[in-house]
Design a protein that fits this description.
The protein is built from nine helices and four strands; from the N terminus they run βαβαββααααααα. With 250 residues, the protein is of the alpha+beta class. The chain folds into two domains: 5-81 and 208-228, Glutaredoxin (3-Layer(aba) Sandwich), CATH 3.40.30.10; 87-201, Glutathione S-transferase Yfyf (Class Pi), Chain A, domain 2. It has a four-stranded mixed sheet, with helices on one face. Strand 3 and strand 4 (61-64) form a beta hairpin. The chain is globular, with a radius of gyration of 17 Å.
């Protein structure tokens, strides 16, 4: 088992969470520089040209994009497999991963979490309430209608836990940060699926770090995480001035 993996990315990010859950499930050791993309320095820009997280560093190799990283890790460490063996199921798992990364990224992250949290605390800007309302009252219910039609009543999407399950749950974890709760009467499958997936030990371990980070000022987060036992790296690519990423949307 390699101990050379290094992750650049904040525990609060659903994209980082997806990768870290995969690493936890595979028993992979890593160090982490838990920065948000908005406070990355020029070296971060060199490693991540779009100023997005996570970034995986494996010796001299730099791998960007959470989906690419997860597939890279799954091919390097095949057990437990996080992509279904059946070609059709594997295609569907990749589609649901992409659906989460792109659409839930738009709705939950840019429509809600960025507006309510990041804009206010990093940039001193007010949320655009029209964007938040549209995401919360229109887009997310439409999303849950779709997920209710594909999620299983019990267990996971393809029998055993896959990257699709991990991806979907990772974004709804961020929805909870802005006080969104899935209505179990309207979407019983989705609510039960999220409850059992987020209760998995890999998610719960990361939740310990996430919950403390949400209550800790940015300059104090690295030391707090070290005290909790997180594998925080000695060096950081963070800087004092927040800078909007190329992925940013208002």
């Amino acid at each position: 088992m390699t101990t050379d993996y290094h992750i650049i990315g904040n525990y609060i990010s659903p994209y980082v969470r997806k990768v870290l859950v995969c690493m936890e499930l595979k028993g992979l050791d890593y160090t982490i520089d838990p920065i948000a993309p908005f406070v990355g320095n020029e070296r971060f820009s060199e490693l991540s040209p779009l100023r997005r997280i996570p970034v995986l560093i494996d010796d001299d190799r730099v791998v960007n994009d959470s989906s690419v990283i997860c597939q890279y890790l799954d091919e390097r460490h095949p057990q437990p497999a996080l992509y279904p063996a059946d070609i059709g199921d594997r295609a569907q798992a990749r589609w649901l991963e992409e659906y989460a990364d792109s659409w839930l990224g738009d709705v939950v992250i840019w429509g809600m979490f960025y507006q309510i949290g990041v804009k206010r605390f990093l940039f001193g800007e007010q949320a655009d309430e029209a964007i938040v309302s549209h995401a919360r009252e229109e887009q997310l219910p439409q999303t849950l209608d779709y997920l209710e039609s594909v999620l299983p009543a019990e267990g996971f999407l393809f029998g055993t836990l896959s990257v699709a399950d991990i991806s979907i749950a990772s974004f709804f974890r961020n929805a909870a940060f802005v006080r969104y709760t899935v209505d179990a009467q309207r979407w019983p499958r989705a609510a039960a699926f999220l409850e059992r997936t987020l209760a998995l030990p890999a998610f719960r371990k990361l939740a310990t770090y996430e919950e403390r980070m949400l209550r800790t000022p940015l300059p104090e987060q690295r030391e707090m995480l070290r005290e909790l036992g997180a594998p925080v790296s000695a060096e950081t690519l963070g800087c004092a001035t927040a800078r909007k990423s190329m992925a940013r949307r208002d």
